Amino acid sequence: MCELPKWLPDETLQAIAEENNLSETAFFVRKGDRYDLRWFTPVEEVDLCGHATLAAGFVILNDLAQDDPVVNFDSQSGPLSVHRKGDRYTLDFPSRPAKPTNPEPGLVEALGGEPRQFLANQDMLVVYKREADVRALEPDFAALSKMEPRGVIATAPGSDCDFVSRFFVPKLGINEDPVTGAAHCVLTPYWAERLGRNRLHARQISKRGGELWCHLHGDRVEISGHAVKVIDGIFEV
User: Fold this and answer.
1) Which of 94, 122, 150 is the last residue of a domain?
2) Total tally of structural domains belonging to the chain
3) CATH number for the domain that contains residue 179
4) Which of 14, 99, 164, 211 could form a disulfide with 158 if both were Cys (CB 3.0 to 4.6 A apart)?
């Protein structure tokens, strides 16, 4: 993430994100007691991102405003916040329920496995029977990048948690995202309805992996996890 004194041109923000070559780079500018927040993948701007928001919130809460346990953002997806409690950080994000749909021809072949259910919001939610089915996926990213969904969320019941997921977004220059807050805005309402409760324990089983605690309340999703600073510096433009 990058703290800015004022907004740079969009092409500069995109160039920084491309140079960083991470799933998303967050940029924020202080506005009174709130912050304007934007996110860029290596190829384009997106309207919501969890882990980059967590990174921005972590830096603000620990380095820029240490006495305040919450930071409030304004974004393309409306107001968002990050709240610190103990060693966990909680994102307050919009819920994005998915609706049943039919997959585009070729999607199953490109994704792999034997999906049981298909739903869609901005991204396609593909449900499998077992965690092992999701772990075994080896998608054809070139084929997925040519299909209609922006991204594909693969999910299944978890062996030691409520559900697991992986998130593939080759269209945005991200073959597989390591941990995805925005995907859990879709996953949480789905699993809350399926399991009949609104507090859920999740794992994103990418190569790096991540553990999340999700709470559905009304039209919002609280997503909690941990954060650790590993590097800081100055980016010269």
Assistant:
1) 94
2) 2
3) 3.10.310.10
4) 164
Catalytic residue check, 3: no
Average pLDDT over residues 200-214: 96
Please identify which residue in the block is written with the tokens 């084929």: 143
DSSP string, 189-218: HHHHHHHT-SEEEEEE-SSS-EEEEEEEET
Q: Are residues 167 and 70 in the same domain?
A: no
- Bridge partners of residue 167, in order along the sequence: 153, 177
Identified catalytic residue from 3, 11, 18, 24: 24
Nearest CA to 217 among 194, 237, 188, 195?
Answer: 188
Same domain for 106 and 89? no
Q: Which residue has the tokens 């240490």?
A: 66
Please tell me whether residues 65 and 110 are part of one structural domain: no
Does residue 201 lie in a domain region? yes
Residue 237 falls within a domain, yes or no? no
- pLDDT at residue 46, as a whole number: 92
Q: What is the pTM for the complete model shown?
A: 0.91
- The two structure tokens encoding residue 72: 């409030």
Separation in Å, CA 232 to CA 22, 55, 226, 229 = 15, 11, 18, 8
Q: What are phi and psi of 52, to 5 degrees?
A: -75, -30
